TrEMBL record:
Belongs to the UPF0312 family. Residues 21-188 form the Lipid/polyisoprenoid-binding YceI-like domain. This is Polyisoprenoid-binding protein. SUPFAM superfamilies: YceI-like (SSF101874). It comes from Nocardioides silvaticus.
């Protein structure tokens, strides 16, 4: 049974956002990634240019996610590394300025679910599962309704044609193939 009260509703005992278009707030969204350097050290980075919409449907399985990532907005805390990430050896932002994620299927139970979607990076599209959790709702001081989500997945960067690496003398490679992705997403209900 679903009871709807804007901007949230209760579905099977779980408080969730009401149906509608929830637009991503880029200034309060963190799309972070972690890889390994020398196969040991964790190196973290993030993208600051993230836009899109989470379209919540009455039936949560019909919800949609459409996100665009400005690949040039990468920040890792080291400008030299950031320039290398933007270069033709890695993200090649001159040719592939954006990455996208578009949902294809949503499984949802309570406040958690899996959003299966098509992730396109470096001109290559692969189906990726995002493990998503609804973290809560707040009304901001300006009257905006905000829904907060977190998500995570991992990808093999080489599956997307991002293959640059250096073999290490002692074995292994300089940069890990597996990349962890963690997202903290703040959205604002579009009442238009």
């Amino acid at each position: 049974m679903t009871t709807t009260t804007a901007p949230t509703r209760t579905v099977d005992g779980a408080l969730l956002p009401a149906a509608g278009a929830w637009e991503i707030d880029p200034g309060h969204t963190d799309l972070a990634f972690t890889g390994r350097h020398f196969m040991v050290t964790k190196v973290r980075g993030r993208f600051t240019g993230v836009t899109g919409v989470v379209e919540i449907a009455e039936d949560l399985r019909d919800s949609r996610v459409d996100v665009t990532i400005d690949m040039a907005s990468v920040e890792s805390g080291n400008e030299t590394r950031d320039e290398h990430l933007r270069s033709a050896e890695l993200f090649d932002v001159a040719i592939y300025p954006t990455a996208t994620f578009r949902s294809a299927e949503v499984e949802w139970r309570g406040t958690r679910g899996t959003v299966h979607g098509d992730l396109t990076i470096h001109g290559v599209t692969k189906r990726v599962p995002l493990e998503v959790e609804f973290e809560g709702y707040v009304r901001d001081p300006w009257g905006g309704d905000r829904a907060i989500f977190s998500a995570r997945t991992k990808v093999n960067r080489e599956d997307f044609g991002v293959t640059w690496n250096v073999a290490l003398e002692a074995g292994g490679v300089l940069v890990s193939k597996e990349i962890q992705i963690e997202i903290n997403l703040e959205t604002v209900l579009n009442n238009a």
